[in-house]
Design a protein that fits this description.
With about 90 residues, this protein is α+β, with helices and mostly antiparallel strands. The protein contains two helices and two strands, in the order H-E-E-H. Helix content is about 65%, strand content about 15%. A two-stranded antiparallel ribbon has the order 1-2. It is elongated.
Length: about 90
């Protein structure tokens, strides 16, 4: 493995680790759907400045989290293939 390939493999591994952390965070949020009387809020933020937020329905929150979860799974799978190809 060349130095350039090793650097690329390290970068891909970092991306995978970051996505796994995001996936774990989404799983924690998805666990809240078992509870009652939950309020979901979306907040928009630019840089360090807080922006606006809005309350969304449970169904909308579930759909958004499910979509994000599936997208992250696909990204991880693609990066795992890329990492495998580097070896």
């Amino acid at each position: 493995m060349t130095e350039q390939t090793l650097k690329k493999a390290i970068e891909v591994k970092r991306q995978i680790d970051h996505l796994r952390e995001r996936k774990a965070g989404i799983e924690k949020l998805q666990a809240w759907f078992k509870e009652e009387n939950i309020i979901f809020r979306i907040q928009a933020q630019v840089g360090a400045c807080c922006g606006d937020s809005v309350i969304i329905s449970e169904a909308t929150a579930k759909q958004a989290l499910d979509n994000e979860f599936e997208n992250i799974k696909k990204e991880i799978e693609a990066l795992m293939i890329e990492l495998s190809d580097l070896h």
